[in-house]
Amino acid sequence: MAGGGAQVELDTGPAKLVALTFDDGPRRSTTRRLLDGLELREANATFFLVGERIEGCEDLIEEMAEAGHQVGVHTFNHVLVTELSREDFDLQVGKTRALLTDFLGEGEFWLRPPYGIVDDSVERWADGPLVLWSVDPEDWKDRDTDRIVAAVLEHVQDGDIILMHDIYESSVDAALRIVDALTSQGYVFVTVEQLMDLRGVEPECGVCYRACPLPEEES
Ligand SMILES: [Zn+2]
After folding, report:
1. Active-site pick, 23, 24, 160, 166
2. What's the CA angle centered on 188, arms 62 and 49, to 5 degrees?
3. What's the sign of the alpha-carbon dihedral 164, 174, 62, 186?
4. Which of 16, 12, 5 is nearest to 38 (CA)?
5. Residues within 5 Å of ion ligand 1, judged at the Cβ atom
6. What is the mean pLDDT of each run of 10 residues along the chain (219 residues)?
7. Predicted TM-score (pTM) of this structure
8. For tag attachment on the chain, is the N or C end more exposed, with fewer CB atoms within 10 Å?
9. How far is the CA of 176 from the centre of ligand 1 (A)?
């Protein structure tokens, strides 16, 4: 699996699926607490890492992958990929992937473009699927845990990909409360790759994915 994490056995049955995704990390203090909270709840998530933040956090990222979370990239310096030349794109994305490969081993390390902005060139250069999102509580804005939890619970549907940031204490608090609330509603927390696999969606290079709802039933 992308990110080199361990395979996770899932008994999904009729469960509703949701993918929590975290951008902009790692940040040792907050990412650490999030990983512990997710482990306690047996919830999987996906982390899109900023390359310049990786050094010194290798142990944390190894643990992340070993716990079954998916690891992806969010460029090296958190840049708008549509403004890059081909060469700079390869530096921003390729360099971050190479760093991860150094200690996680070979992996696909899917890309989440900062700000979710892509164009035709980026789609051609991506060398992997592009992961966007369907639920955005704007957790970076006011860092108000109650509001973030409410914003997600109000909008979330089966197959959604939720965008959050693991560099804020408020987002970690909110994420763990979201896991508790949605688990009690029958949701199972999976990585983006697992979500696509369980929904029969074949990941394709240069294609943007925002959610994986169940196909509409013909009536
Ligand atoms: Zn970001």
Report:
1. 23
2. 30
3. negative
4. 5
5. 23-24, 114
6. 47 79 98 98 98 98 98 98 98 98 97 98 97 98 97 97 98 98 97 97 97 78
7. 0.93
8. C
9. 20
